[in-house]
Design brief:
By secondary structure, the chain is mostly helical. It has four helices and no strands. It has one domain.
């Protein structure tokens, strides 16, 4: 069930209220970033959302909150697909770690 554009303002208020209610139940989270809120709001409005955000921005929080918030919207039948380049991320972090170390003692192997 997607929400009509005519009700988008009321949906935004309802989504924000719902997000805040979910966040209050999670001890380690007090607020979310504007981009995270936007992704969740548009998703719950039935819009297709493609979020490309930098590493450590909080993308995982978005897809952790989505089903919790969605449970509070009876009648919604939405699909949330997460595509994560995990291998590329691991390689990138490994390269950063490797490049940050002192390799002056390396034997060339």
């Amino acid at each position: 069930m997607a929400f009509s554009k005519a009700t988008s303002a009321s949906v935004k208020v309802r989504v924000n209220t719902t997000i805040n209610a979910v966040i209050e139940k999670i001890d380690s989270i007090t607020t979310i970033k504007q981009e995270q809120e936007h992704v969740l709001t548009e998703f719950l409005r039935g819009k297709d959302v493609f979020a490309v955000l930098p590493t450590e921005f909080g993308k995982s929080l978005i897809y952790q909150l989505a089903p919790l918030v969605m449970k509070m919207f009876p009648g919604t039948n939405l699909i949330f697909l997460v595509v994560s380049p995990l291998v590329a991320l691991m390689e990138d972090q490994g390269t950063k770690e490797f490049n940050g170390r002192d390799h002056s003692h390396a034997d060339g192997c």
